[in-house]
Design a protein that fits this description.
single chain; 202 residues; alpha+beta; VC0802-like; eleven-stranded antiparallel beta sheet; 19% helix
Length: 202
């Protein structure tokens, strides 16, 4: 498998902890409505345990799509999302220093045939490498076609920066096409997010 970094941008993450569990479709519907009103692209995920919605920011420079939103726009969007859900508290900067955070879909071969990879296919089997079941929540704004909405069963991987190769290997085993790895800050170096494309996307 081969992969290449195709874009990079500044790190932003925010999380709303919820007082109860939701059907992911219910959260996706709220996100769809908010994005239609604000034209702010959303990429994130829902987890049942702890019940929470996490928003991230993927770089966006493709023709026909609005650019990645500003920090202020994302803070506002998370606040509006929290107002629409039964929210306990908000948290920002959820990627710890020196750690990696990545959302990977479980559909094999990108958006392909719908076969789901088992959660075990994402394991790294080293200390500090954690895999959590989640549901992807996404709504992007295409200037020609309007909203591009997408969700699927997913996993979230948290790992040490030195174990990045294990994340790429997991993406290969599950035939992912695109994914973004959030890098927590290290010393005086700010965190960033790197977007990757794999040979499976060809």
């Amino acid at each position: 498998m081969s992969y290449r970094e195709i874009d990079r941008g500044p790190l932003w993450t925010g999380r709303a902890y919820l007082a109860r569990q939701y059907d992911p479709a219910e959260i996706q519907a709220v996100v769809n409505d908010l994005v239609a009103q604000s034209l702010t692209t959303i990429t994130g995920y829902y987890r049942e345990e702890p019940a929470s919605v996490t928003l991230t920011r993927w770089p966006e420079s493709r023709p026909g799509y609005l650019p990645a939103p500003s920090d202020g726009a994302l803070v506002l969007m998370l606040g509006k999302l929290a107002d629409r859900l039964d929210t306990l508290k908000l948290e920002y900067d959820v990627v710890s220093p020196g750690r990696l955070h990545v959302l990977l879909g479980r559909k094999m071969n990108g958006y392909g045939d719908g076969d789901l990879a088992p959660v075990s296919a994402y394991h790294g089997n080293v200390p500090g490498y954690f895999v959590h079941e989640a549901h992807m929540i996404s709504a992007r704004v295409n200037t020609g076609h309007g909203l591009s909405l997408y969700g699927e069963p997913a996993v979230v991987i948290e790992a040490e920066a030195k174990d990045e190769a294990l994340i790429h290997a997991a993406a290969d085993r599950t035939r992912q096409h695109h994914y973004a790895i959030e890098h927590g800050p290290v010393g005086d170096t700010a965190g960033y997010v790197a977007l990757f494309e794999t040979s499976w996307a060809k």
